[in-house]
Amino acid sequence: MKCIILAGGFARRLLPLTENTPKPLLPVGGRPILGYIIDKLRAVGGVERIYITTNRRFWHSFQEFIRTECVGLDAELYVEDAENEGQKLGSVGAIHRLAADKGLHGDCLVIGGDNLFDFGLDGLTEFHRKVGASVVALHDVASSAKASLYGIARLGPDGRILDFVEKPRDPPSTLASTACYLFNGEAMRSLATYIDEGNPPDAAGNFVAWLCKRLPVFGLVMGGLWFDIGSKESYAEADTLYRQRRRAGDPG
Length: 252
Description:
This protein is an alpha/beta fold and 252 residues long. The protein has helices at 33-43, 59-69, 91-102, 122-131, 144-147, 185-196, 204-211, 232-247; strands spanning 2-6, 27-28, 31-32, 49-55, 75-80, 108-112, 115-117, 134-140, 151-155, 161-166, 175-183, 217-221, 226-228. It contains eight helices and 13 strands. Strand 4 (49-55), helix 2 (59-69) and strand 5 form a beta-alpha-beta unit.
């Protein structure tokens, strides 16, 4: 199984914090957001290689991160041909381009590089093996107001995603995508069809919404905390909590 970490955005909503530092490398609790994701990947078995996909503006920062924080891991930087917001490939576009260039046609774990989460990834991989299909890690945000900000899944009794919608005005549930996906080979091979049809290349949830109408895709509700660092407020909240944890002796 390969892993793709999506880190190609420019995070304009977090300016000026992201003027010279990409969002996944902003410090939370004294260390980069991406460092916590790497910790989770170290703890899960079966990941053969990690690709971090980013843009030309920030590639050097991620290259240094790989050198210092990915020691002992097979990690590679994939640089998208983009220097500004208007040139970026988008999440789905980046997955498709990388998969095509690197020949990634089997199981692939895809993680948004601006995520902070408590849950371990082993539960996701075990559930994937059990159902034999793609799986989306979900978090119950517990309110319709919050749900309207995320990609939201409606599940059947067996956990299969019946419907998935990005930022709905009237959410069908409060189960939000955490931008942690385990796509099987069939889903990865479907990326070319999705792109060729002219579908949106940005938010990966758009691909999930398209995919779940064509192939079995399951959702797994994960416990613990989850932060989507999309605003200065959520960034400050996460930083405060993780600093408190470090003072209490919990590495996060």
